[in-house]
Amino acid sequence: MSVDEVAPHRRGRPPTLKDVASMAGVSIATASKALNNRQHVGAATRQRVQSAADALNFSPNALAQGMVAQRSGTVGLLTSDLVGRFSMPVLRGAEDAFGSEKMSVLLADARDDHIRQQHHLRALLSRRVDGLIVVGAQPDPRPSLGQDLGVPVVYAYAPSDDPQDMSVVADDVAGGRLAVDHLIRCGRRTIAHVTGDPTYGASHDRARGAVERLAEEGLTLAGGEVMYDSWSEAWGRGATRLLLDREPALDAVFAGSDQIARGVLDALLEAGKRVPEEVAVIGFDNWEVLATGSRPPLTTIDPALENLGRVAALRLASAIEGRAGHGVESYPCRLVTRSSTAPLH
Amino acid sequence: MSVDEVAPHRRGRPPTLKDVASMAGVSIATASKALNNRQHVGAATRQRVQSAADALNFSPNALAQGMVAQRSGTVGLLTSDLVGRFSMPVLRGAEDAFGSEKMSVLLADARDDHIRQQHHLRALLSRRVDGLIVVGAQPDPRPSLGQDLGVPVVYAYAPSDDPQDMSVVADDVAGGRLAVDHLIRCGRRTIAHVTGDPTYGASHDRARGAVERLAEEGLTLAGGEVMYDSWSEAWGRGATRLLLDREPALDAVFAGSDQIARGVLDALLEAGKRVPEEVAVIGFDNWEVLATGSRPPLTTIDPALENLGRVAALRLASAIEGRAGHGVESYPCRLVTRSSTAPLH
User: Residues of B with CB below 8 A from A290's CB?
Assistant: First the structure.
């Protein structure tokens, strides 16, 4: 009997631990232990439970499930991200990890304003949230909220500046490396890097990954250096005009953001360069409204924010159960290919 | 002195706490404390804030203040807006109206998925929210959640399809009228309208406002008709190429969204038309990442979503106190001028 045949009556509600236990023929407690890799579960049982979970497409958040029994079932998400560009995907990922019926997310918008943040913090704590996820407006380290809040905190996207805290972030170095790796696989050799504000650590991290990957091929950056300025289309256009002067053989640009990449594309188009035939362009962010509307649609590096939200929720659930983590965990970005890159013929 | 000279930024919206804070030269939090007679605000500051509130005719929201005393102090915001583009400004406006220390907003992301919406609804109600604000992913009417939830509901941005419900929406007809009025004031006479999906009521409403305002000048649409297709840059480009063929004297385009406007600008640039000298372009949405990065930066109609959030919060506060409203209330859009429109010389 296939999963398709079994599953239709369950369509629309996620499988529960009970479903898994029932399919594996074990108690709920045993299923929970098996999925959480606790001791006192034999290897065969563990395997049977895992197979049932896989067949049912069960995404274990036993942590959150256990947790919710004694808790308010509410997590606060404190964001400084005005347009929701970064916080909404993190929120979605966290909701997916917890399960909406088990945990609600109270979102509060601190607007990068310290006083407002303190207000929101008090308001969230007075509502007895079980924990907090803090999402920054940009990926650089942000001040810790301290260790005395009485509930666990996980920082997502922007790490805390206190190594005692737990932070989950996108791996910008690996993201920069991934971008250049893709361009090299497309046969490009004269690769420039146009990026944003040099006061952002993320600019330097992405650039470092790019330069390291180039060095492995015996290459250096076209234009001679990383071109830092601002996270804007205007800078993408300006930088590209400079580059075309300096590097007539330019065959690829790695832009540090999709906004910059849009400017790069426009300037190349104006200079009569064909993208991707003559010059390939890759961005960073996978901001869909920018990346899908461009000519041609933009290949870009996606920082996988939903995954960050999911991991942040799991780490928070562990911390609520008394197993707090520390330090900064980096998670991979992923390559999203559209039409602005292609192999050289 | 005309209203235009005094208060261009306030046209069509009541003063907010932010306006008061800005006029008094203090933070929003301080203005809030001063108006609520909290401690830790100096007498001089309190006086300055009160004077600003008086000058602006700002009425602090006694409803929300009174309401919260006997309630959970939590409002649910149920959104289907994947990127947060529409829900985040509504959330901010609602927070401003309530005051973050008095009311928290539980945000739940329904992702346009009926089953997920039902889950979230149960989750929110089980957390005893005092009321719900429902934000649609697009401005067309959406199915009512019904009258049996046990808490009041206000629909924002997208109205409910049940006239028993209370909805607050942007006035798309007036928005279309405002766009064309601005173009006419810039001396334009050959004005086309390129817009999105014809199955959206908002497309037709914006077009109707535009056509009505043209008719007052004895004008009709350049190109002979509203050009409907999709909310995309690609359609903006395609439509503009068609228009330049049909209407060599084209001197203005009203685009039904900022995405479309970006395409219009690109196609005009490619055709060698100078914007705004030869052709003026106005968009709709004031989606900043699109409107500020374009060449030239885009004049556009802002649907004033923060104000919708503020009004939704006030209506919800009334309903929670037992004075529920019904029907659809429309609120003005506002004109945001940048460089893509200018008077003809």
Answer: 289-290
